[in-house]
């Protein structure tokens, strides 16, 4: 999800430089209204589900207490019936079903030949799910560092390129193309990994819990595209991508605590990328950035600012 979010942030930063402020404000209000409405609907839905579960739990407890004695009587009757059945089986002719039993055992053994392998793979997956996937984090950091490096060395209207690349030149656009190409490559690699892992989980009978995302072929296309839109808005409006990603993950069925933590983590990469683009384009106001940084440290959120003019012009 995060690679395409970064790509969207880069593209959005370009539009932040080009579009007039009044249009950006109107679009931001529309975006905030849409996400707030979706979040409210999700909250109401979750409240109703939790309330229903609480009522069902209370009712089931009352039913359990009311019918406790009846259940005990049923258990006694069942035990008596089982004892009678065992007595009848003991009186049956021994050895009459040995051939059938052996055939059933052979069939069972042949059918369960691959169970040890599946169980071993399932245990491995469960163990991996308990820890942070370090390799995935390393890939994300490497992708982010490469994008940050290219974004700085290509320069912009307010930040001179160390390599002498002029804003708007062929080299400038080639560098931007390299960034997007690198991000798409990492995204395809991540999609291939997620789809293969989904197929493996399906094969070994992995049971998903409520809030887990099943990364099948459709999910690995739809959700990253929506995340690209989240990054686009983050770069264009100078806000955190979590403003879209949070409601998105709630709509995906992710637990609110997991959604909040994941959004906060991904905002680090998205906002840093957008901020870098703001710096090279001269959109970042130093005094405002300083105050916003202090507020961010105190409140745990990231703020941003924007301006108008051409792509390579100063704000």
Mean pLDDT: 75
Structural class: mainly alpha
What's the shape?
globular
Number of strands: 0
Number of helices: 11
Question: Radius of gyration from the CA trace?
Answer: 29 Å
Strand content: under 5%
Unreliable segments of 5+ consecutive residues: 95-112, 302-309
Roughly what percent helix? Answer: over 70%
- SSE pattern: HHHHHHHHHHH
- State the distance separating the first and last CA atoms: 32 Å
Sheet with the most strands?
Answer: none
Description:
Helix 1 runs parallel beside helix 8, helix 6 runs parallel beside helix 10 (about 255-280) and helix 9 runs antiparallel to helix 10. The radius of gyration is 29 Å and the shape is globular. It starts with a helix and ends in a 16-residue tail after the last helix. By secondary structure, the chain is mainly α. The chain has helices at about 1-20, 20-65, 70-90, 100-110, 115-130, 135-155, 170-205, 220-235, 240-250, 255-280, 285-300.
